[in-house]
Each structure stands twice: as structure tokens, then as C-alpha cells.
Design a protein that fits this description.
Elements lengths: L10 H13 L4 H6 L9 E10 L6 E6 L10 H14 L3 E4 L10 H12 L5 E4 L3 H4 L3 H10 L2 E3 L3 E4 L7 E5 L10 H4 L8 E5 L16 E4 L8 E2 L2 E2 L14 E5 L2 E5 L17 E9 L4
Parallel strand pairs: 1-14, 2-3, 3-4, 4-5, 7-8, 8-9, 9-13
Antiparallel strand pairs: 2-14, 6-7, 10-11, 12-13
Helix pairs in contact: 4-6
Amino acid sequence: MTRGRGKHYDLGRAFAERVCGALFAGDWARRAAQLVPGATRVELLRHRLRILPPGTPPLRVAFASDLHVGPTTPAALLERAFELLAEEKPDVLLLGGDYVFLEASAPRVAEIAKLVSRVPAQRKIAVLGNHDLWTNHGAIEDALREVGVEVLINRGTLLDEPWSRVRVVCLDEPWTGSPDPVSAFSARTPDEVVIVLCHAPDGLTFLSPGQAALFVCGHTHGGHIALPNGPVVLPPGPLSRRYPSGRYAVDGTELFVSRGIGNTEAPLRLYAPPDVSIFELEASDVS
């Protein structure tokens, strides 16, 4: 039923994807959606946090998730999102997974690589999402690595000087993957500040209180189709409804849940606009 290693790909999921593949054949929905007023608008969110070790210079971190390159996400929407991030010239680009919807075909994978390559960040670090793990995720990983992205699964990495006391810890997808926090945090030392990159907020359940200063993720789409007072339907996961989108203080960790960029079964969003983020991180001793 699937070429990927993702769990929970059952007959129901396979049937739903076959229906979507037939319904959206020829990418007509992708082209039609971008003609709808506002359908390609992306919100750039800015966050300022004082979490870096004392004496560390400011660090600009960009974050994007849930591109869902496929038959329902307008190309102009994706291009606008990465144009916004490129203009910010971040030091680090973090990618939260779900790069595709349905198949990781060669044209889709090439489109992902082209988008990501536009952002002039010194370091680019990525995890995978549930939709990636249900398809040929190896092709996605290869394409990302070819444009300088570090795809990390249950691993951490230190940033370069002058941010060498900042560690990015990457957890595998909580629902369809196999998170291993012991391996991911194995090289951490007490003087390091940790940013956790994970596809979904449920990755928080694998952390101890205060183990990360910042946790960034996507997955929820903010409900994708929501009402003015909040999401109606959210994807599986014990924390999706509790943390549908935005910033939250959770047991000593600053949690940010992105609404993501792209679309899946529905080619348009309602009260859940796409977003990308810039985190302006400063030292805790800044007055």
C-alpha cells in the first residue's frame, strides 16, 4: 500500500488517497485555487525570544512547515512563502516536514528543492512529516540534501560559531514515525540551549519539562477549515486540539505550532491562513 516507513497507512488511508488522486488528476485544483482572491496570501509571523546563552549574539531562525507540494497547493502560494523567507535572510532555516501531498514524484521533489534553495541561510535543517513517511520519503530526503539541507532523524546538531552553544534536536514524526529522544538528546551538554524541531506538537510528550527552550512544529494546519472561534476538525494526535496553532508556554518550553503553508484534501483554507515564521533569538542577558 505504501513505499514509505510510515505507520498507520491502512486501507482507509489508501482508499482516500486513491480518490484524491483521481479527483485532482491533472492538477486542475492547484491551478484553480490560485485564482481565488487571497488564496496565495501568506502571513509572516515574527517572534522575539530571549533564550540564547549569555554573551551569544542574536540569531535569526526561519521556520516553514507543511508545504504539501501536490495537486491542491497553488504554486504561487509556495513561491510567495519562500520569497518572504528569502527576503529575511535568516541564519538558520528549519523545515517541519510534510513536503508533499500524495506522491513524491520527480517533479514534486524538484519543486521542493527549488523552493528551499531560494532561502540564503547558512544552515538548513529538516525533519519529515506523516505524509512524507507514507510515500517515497527517500526521494524527498535526497532532494533536500542535494540543496544543502541536513535531514536529521532522532539526531541533534550544534550550530556554527558564534552560536555553537545552540543545539537543534530533531525528533522523528510522533504518529507515523519512531521518535527516540534518548538518541536525539544524547550529545547534549548542560551549557547548551536546545531548539527542538518536530513535525507535530505530540513530540512534546517525549520531552521532560524544560528540556527544550523552544519547540517548533506544524501538522495541525490550524484546523485548515475552521470557524471564527477556532478549528473544528484537527488531525490525529493527543495535543493537536490543545495546541492547534500559535505560541504556548508549556512546562518551561516555548511551543510554536505553525498553520503551515499548503493544502491536502481541501484546496482552500478557511480561517486558518498559511504562515511562515521568523524567530529573533537573543541572549538571556540582553537588557
